[in-house]
Amino acid sequence: MNAIYYPKKELSLDESMVLWRGRLVFRQYIQNKCLKYGIKLYMLTEPDGLVIKFAVYTGVFDDMEGQGNASIVVLYLMSEKLENGHSLYMDNFYNSFDLATLLIQKNTYCTGTLRLNRKNTLVEVKKDETIARYSNGVVIGKRRDKREVAYISTEFKNNLVVSTNTRGHNQTKPEPIVNYSKFMSGIDRQDQMQSYYPCIRKTIRWYKKIGIHIEQMLLMNSFYLYNKYKI
Hints:
This protein is α+β, with helices and mostly antiparallel strands. The protein folds into two domains: 1-81 and 189-225, no CATH class; 86-178, no CATH class. The chain has five helices and eleven strands; from the N terminus they run E-E-E-E-H-E-H-E-E-E-E-E-E-H-H-H. It has helices at 69-77, 97-105, 175-183, 186-196, 206-229, and strands spanning 10-19, 28-29, 37-45, 51-56, 87-90, 109-114, 129-135, 138-144, 148-153, 160-164, 170-174. Strands 1, 2, 3, 4, 5, 6, 7, 8 and 9 form a nine-stranded mixed sheet that branches. It has a two-stranded antiparallel sheet with strand order 10-11. Strand 8 (138-144) and strand 9 (148-153) form a beta hairpin. It is globular.
């Protein structure tokens, strides 16, 4: 992909799963995924599902394991894309104040949710209240609607904008949350497209499943690029 295509400004980073329920030392469980058990892939994609780069998580055998591994993963997947003004969207597993500060120094913006127990997050907020604090070009905000949500951004301020939900109702939300919801769907779209024509069978060994999954990603990328540049 580095040789044939350069992505647009918006990029999303998240995990994907290759189904595997057998014994494997680095098998993972992710609760909010359709395939909850399997081999985890860290993936960098465009919002439409085009895969730019990925890495297989292999546990203790992995150079990206240990303390601060989330930042290591982000910097590895973005290594060829730093210093070019990209907007990176990530969930609360990756985001932190220190990582956001490091990325903005490398001319790369980041936006996404933030874990409430991370350092430099904010105090309690009341219902329908939004608060934010700014430091070194980073905004950390917290909003409470039905539940508390913390978020971080180095690109957008904490301006309230009108957003239309799936039912057609207008809601007022912070600008970082609106853009996060808009551009954070790349990995889910990739998983959705692959689920329509699955090539995986139970009897296939795990490393063959990874190989087949990679071939499917290549086919999907070819399909996206063909649709984008066909005459």
